[in-house]
Design goal:
Length: 158
């Protein structure tokens, strides 16, 4: 269900938003960051690739989202282990409540920043306009993080 919700939200609403002609919310990366600790690594990669491929189809970005999300899916299980206590439950999901604000902030900020860096580097594929690239990376990272933290806070209150 979340897969469909994120794809529809991105394709119908969020993909059409371009604040200051550079910042686009890329909320679907949140889907890849939510896999629990014991989820199979091949499953994370498969879901990441298909999410990216579906976004590419709707956004007309051939292979950019698929490659970037697959890269995030490849590092997510290992990266998540850095922030989880060793004695925690195997099915622990990454969230603001489970990890705490500091650890979750580091976890999500780094993954979203890496994703935006990869996405816009592959999309532009050159550095002729370095300022536009940097504004896209910083702006999209910021707006995506604002949306993710909004969802996490709302999820914690529910």
């Amino acid at each position: 269900m979340l897969f469909v919700a994120f794809v529809l939200a991105q394709a119908l609403v969020l993909g059409r938003i371009h604040l200051f002609h550079c910042a686009t919310p890329l909320l679907y990366v949140y889907f890849v960051t939510m896999f629990p600790r014991n989820y199979p690594k091949w499953g994370v990669l498969t879901w990441s690739f298909f999410m990216g491929l579906t976004i590419d189809i709707f956004s007309n970005t051939p292979g950019v989202a698929a490659a970037s999300l697959t890269a995030i899916g490849a590092i997510q299980p290992y990266f998540y282990e850095l922030f989880v206590p060793r004695d925690s439950a195997e099915s622990l999901e990454p969230s603001l409540v489970n990890l705490g604000p500091t650890k979750y902030s580091y976890y999500i900020v780094i993954l979203v920043a890496i994703y935006c860096l990869l996405f816009f580097t592959l999309e532009l594929f050159n550095f002729d306009n370095l300022v536009e690239w940097l504004m896209s990376v910083v702006g999209s990272t910021s707006i995506t993080l604002a949306l993710i933290f909004t969802f996490e806070i709302a999820k914690g209150k529910a």
